[in-house]
Write a structure and sequence with these properties.
434 residues, alpha/beta, 7-stranded mixed sheet, 15 helices, 41% helix, 10% strand, globular, metalloprotease, lipoprotein
């Protein structure tokens, strides 16, 4: 759902080659070549200290540590790297901390992982964009001003310094086994038309390279996520078509089970268990998403589904809008044992700012959101709050978050290529045997 503040606030700098861009070898000399080809100086000692603490959370074979360390060093030293002077002293006035946060956002793209505006356009305007005044202040325009679930317009996105927005192609569970695929295509269509209509403010993005270039050009990226595996209609072919249309993540379940995965309804208080997690076909879908390079989103999944996916996926996963179960025991949030698995998976959890998922009450504060961060540093991103409320010298945190997303996206692209190559090799061997 839309929120006054975009729900999942994640400070991320995705510096990786696009899937269709050639990868470049890393240089171990005094200068490093980033995946997007920039030559930059190696980072100073503070980043090395960050690496040491961060890698302790990973369960990696020793032979991989050198390669991972090299990638993290390169991430920290990327061509748009966060300045070393970007820090705020304890007791700094609010204006100084706001200035530091603004400087950070000039450098690192702020990515919102989930926004339901396209569904409101369908609900209020039947996807007729001629009647949609996106550039105006929708707080003053009915029916948007009267809706508790409408808090997005172009003005507020710009003021909030959003660099890239994942729009949700959401379909209600009532459409499952009926017209879910058609409605999903219509929602993808309205996202694309909205992006074209408000170009150059918005620009379509489908890769890390696109996001980096758009941020340089002061444009806002439009990205697409499909919310709910029921949108597939049980078809791998439909999944592949979605990817071709620009979809870059799929939430495996919405608020209902699919024929191949349990939603959060399987957990308390409902305990409506259908499959006990992910079925064999569900695992096939996850592996195909890995092959394509489409991100698996586990928000709204059951704990059993989360664990099954994390045991199956070769690529990092995300939670596009979830918070910490330890702080608010909603079945929509992520439990500590799953957070530990996400850390090993090198994935991301994007914090949901909805009051009932932050504090389990009707009211929540920024401090409640900041309270999420100690659960798991590698998956919770609260840098702006560090600047504004806790006076941290946040260079290390900036580096860790940049490195985390770099690894997520590098893994997603590279694993997709590896899986495809493995399948092609297997098919060639099978043909020879026949």
């Amino acid at each position: 759902m839309e929120r006054a503040v975009p729900q999942p606030v994640v400070i991320q700098s995705p510096h990786s080659a696009a899937r269709n861009q050639p990868h470049k070898k890393f240089d171990s000399s005094d200068k490093a070549t980033t995946p997007s080809g920039w030559a930059v100086q190696q980072p100073a000692g503070i980043y090395t200290d960050c690496i040491a603490g961060y890698l302790e959370q990973w369960d990696l074979p020793s032979r991989q540590w050198l390669a991972v360390t090299s990638i993290l060093l390169i991430a920290g030293a990327a061509g748009v790297a966060v300045p070393f002077a970007l820090k705020v002293s304890a007791g700094a006035p609010l204006e100084e901390r706001i200035q530091a946060a603004t400087q950070l956002l000039d450098t690192v793209p702020l990515i919102d992982g989930h926004n339901d505006l396209p569904w409101n356009i369908r609900k209020f305007l039947h996807n007729q964009l001629n009647e949609f005044r996106f550039e105006d202040d929708l707080k003053q325009i009915s029916p948007w001003s009267k809706s508790a679930w409408s808090h997005t317009d172009l003005q507020r996105l710009k003021r909030g310094r959003i660099a890239a927005q994942f729009w949700a192609a959401y379909v209600p569970c009532e459409a499952q086994h009926k017209d879910a695929v058609q409605i999903t295509l219509e929602q993808i269509d309205v996202i694309k038309r909205l992006t074209e209509r408000y170009s150059p403010h918005l620009t379509a993005c489908a890769s890390v390279y696109d996001i980096v270039q758009a941020h340089k050009n002061h444009q806002m990226c439009s990205l697409i996520g499909v919310e709910g595996g029921h949108s597939l209609g049980g078809s791998l072919g439909v999944l592949r078509i979605y990817y071709a249309l620009g979809v870059r993540y799929m939430t495996l379940t919405s608020t209902c089970h699919t024929p191949w995965a349990d939603s959060s309804n399987a957990d308390g208080p409902k305990y409506d268990i259908k499959h006990g997690g992910l079925t064999a076909y569900g695992k096939t879908i996850v592996r195909e998403m890995n092959r394509l390079g489409m991100i698996v989103d586990l928000s709204k999944s059951s704990v059993a589904t989360m664990k099954d996916v994390l045991a199956t996926s070769q690529a990092p996963v995300i939670f596009s809008h979830s918070s910490a179960y330890a702080l608010c025991n909603s079945s929509r949030n992520v439990q500590d044992e799953v957070l530990q698995l996400v850390t090993k998976n090198r994935g991301l959890v994007m914090v949901n700012f909805y009051n009932k998922f932050l504090s389990c009450t009707e009211n929540a504060t920024v401090e409640d959101a900041v309270g999420e961060y100690p659960i798991c540093l590698s998956v919770y991103s609260c840098l702006l709050f560090f600047f504004i409320y806790f006076h941290h010298q946040s260079v290390c945190c900036v580096f860790v978050l940049r490195g985390t997303l770099l690894l997520v996206l590098l893994n997603i692209y590279d694993i997709g290529e590896m899986v495809t190559a493995g399948l092609q090799k297997g098919n060639r061997q099978k043909s020879k045997m026949e």
